[in-house]
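This entry is listed as follows:

___
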Amino acid sequence: MNKTVISSVVACFLMFGLNACKKVGCTDPAALNYDANSVDDDGSCVYLSDNLTVKFHSKLGTENFAYDSDALTASGRKVRIINAQMYMSGFALNGQNGELILDDSYLLVRPETVSYNLGYAPLGTYSTVSFSVGVDSAANHEDPAVWESDNPLSSNNPYHMHWGWNTGFIFFAVEGYVDTSATMNGATNAPFSFHIGLDKNLVRLAFVDEISVTTEGAIIELDIDWLKLFNGTNMTSEIPTRSTDSFNNPDLATLVRLNVDDAFRLH
């Protein structure tokens, strides 16, 4: 070490003490400007906000989703969907440091929109993503007016789905027309309506996938096959076979809700 360097170090100790000679900078590994050589944090950390995106690719079987178009259910019955949307909540990632719960992660997913922002996740690698189809019990019984206007749960949302305080939100809705003929070769002209809600019909899903959150962010991609929601149904001219608001036709609601798990898969 030359005399100039030695003199500088000695001067630092004499003038300011040992602590003042430690390098300062950003000490948070999750920050974009993390400095592993810094000992004291100087408040300069910079974070990438809104770095986590989820994409839902809507399908009708093997085809891309299309409104007002005839599609065949697994039983061979023709349906024509004119409205489809679902609430999702409670997104979480699981990694080496345990579970990361994404705060206030509520989405209202519609087939015409693919990409949704989930907020911020610390940089790192995660092995599992989980979420609920529906709205968690606490939020389900909140007044929709308490949410900010841009929140999917807000009553200001043009696609807002809410029955009332006691019953809460409609977790997902699928509406349209079906061919109810016995031979299943007639016209899709009989209306059907699936409105699934109530706390007991919340569905928790989890998918194992390597998710690397880098400085450029991360994208999670899933498929939703809306036709899978019809599995096991036998929609006829009898209205109870093709219409439920959950509380007034719980058997059909349960059948549709049990199909949710099969409707989702990794893209």
